[in-house]
Design goal:
4-stranded mixed sheet; 2 domains; D-Maltodextrin-Binding Protein, domain 2; alpha/beta; 16 strands; 5-stranded mixed sheet
């Protein structure tokens, strides 16, 4: 499946996602030969996060191998959890025993690296033919220095099983779903599905383990004029009203608290309606594209809303193989290389020059394209908080209280959450 589309957002943001790993482009434009030579013959990369096996396969066998072949060097690639990566780099910096040259970090974990002074300014290392969205500058830059460069990002979209279309509220069509329905219509649809099927088949990623719930909840609140994080605004309360309406109609999937992404319940058929990251939705969609309709984020009184974070590359200050680290940043910010990575990983590209490389249509990307063209988008302000996971758990509390009571929690309850959130602020 090929790709197309571009949009304007915070300057010009061009999007690319792919039919992840179903016929993925293993030959890859990320495997050029030849290139400038460096004095160093190996480089060490700390790749934080926990990619899936098929993602690791692409990163190792195509993306990294392309760099090795181009420069005739060896890449030592370490997959490490995000929390462990912070500890590792803090130790390397404090002891002066610098091992990792390049880091792969997401914006929600970027604060310690930038605020700790652990990273080199990479402003001059970016490929000369590439320009970037400014959407993540607040997280990646400090003053006039750039410490990280965004590599990929995604947003939130709606996914609905084709069998759910028969339960659409009156007046809505499949095209209405693609273009974007309202949150009120979403709630009515979820309840209709539950009544018709005898059980709830709508979910949010409600697991407290590795929680991702605050992101779709924030998107809902933004759609009604709320903030992020936010527990007391009218916009947030209105978004909780949508959750309460679905809960009152028994519309939620009974086992949603076990999942931090809807992919597996979508693929099993247990979930027919969800609002989630493009990437996990893309995996389920690509496994059975004829079974799913992908649409823009639902709208509230202020429009559609979504949060968005990015995965980024940076060079550690004092990197022992700085010459190769500079070449790596140039390599990963080349439009063709970045396009290939995002095509295979089902993400979106922050590089403007990726646009001319896109061709044909891709359903998930098109939904994101339409959504971002007129959507309120908020970054992830994790660096502003002492413990971002603690903020996540406050959203879990708000969600669970709404489910249990089947109504918007009291002002006292929400004010307590707000007070706890403010106490976590740096």
């Amino acid at each position: 499946m090929k790709l197309s589309g571009k949009l304007a957002l915070a300057g010009l943001v061009l999007l690319v996602t792919g039919s992840a790993f179903a016929g993925a482009r293993k030959e890859s434009a990320a495997s050029p030969s030849g290139g400038a030579q460096a004095a160093s013959k190996e480089i060490t990369i700390a790749y934080s996060g926990t990619p899936q096996p098929h993602e690791k396969e692409y990163v190792i066998d195509v993306f990294v191998k392309g760099f090795e072949q181009k420069y005739g060097v060896k890449v030592n690639l370490e997959f490490i959890t995000q929390d462990d990566c912070v500890k590792k780099i803090e130790s390397e910096q404090s002891t002066g025993n610098i091992i990792s040259d390049v880091l792969y970090v997401d914006t929600s974990h970027m604060g310690p690296y930038v605020n700790g002074g652990w990273m080199a300014d990479i402003s001059s290392m970016i490929h000369s033919g590439s320009s970037l969205t400014k959407m993540y500058d607040a997280a990646t830059n400090k003053g006039s220095a750039r410490y990280f460069v965004p590599n990929s990002f995604d947003v939130y979209v709606l996914a609905a099983h084709v069998d759910a279309l028969k339960y659409l509220p009156g007046g809505l069509t499949r095209q209405s779903v693609v273009d974007g329905i309202t949150w009120e219509q979403y709630a009515e649809w979820a309840v209709n599905i539950a009544k018709g099927e005898g059980k709830g088949k709508t979910m949010l990623p409600a697991s407290a383990q590795g929680s991702q719930l605050l992101y779709p909840m924030a998107g809902m609140a933004l759609a009604y004029g709320g903030g992020f994080p936010d527990f007391t605004s009218d916009g947030f309360k209105q978004s909780l009203g949508i959750i309460a309406a679905i809960a009152k109609g028994n519309g939620f999937y009974a086992e949603q608290a076990q999942y931090s992404a809807p992919t597996d319940p979508m693929r099993s058929g247990d979930v027919w309606l969800t609002f989630a990251h493009m990437s996990p939705i893309g995996v389920a969609y690509n496994a059975a594209p004829n079974q799913w309709v992908i649409g823009a984020a639902p709208r509230g009184s202020r429009g559609a809303g979504s949060t968005s974070g990015a995965w980024c590359w940076g060079v550690q200050k004092g990197a022992p193989h700085e010459d190769l680290a500079k070449m790596w940043i140039d390599y990963v910010t080349t439009a063709q290389i970045n396009y290939d990575f995002n095509f295979n990983m089902s993400f979106l590209s922050p590089i403007n020059e990726v646009g001319p490389l896109l061709s044909s249509e891709e359903v998930v990307m098109t939904a994101g394209n339409k959504m971002l063209g007129n959507t309120i988008v908020a970054g992830v302000p994790s660096a502003d908080y002492k413990d971002w996971n603690a903020v996540k758990l406050l959203y879990i509390d708000a969600f669970n209280q709404t489910l249990q009571s089947q109504q918007v929690p009291s002002n006292t309850f929400l004010a307590d959450l707000d007070s706890k959130c403010k106490a976590l602020h740096n």
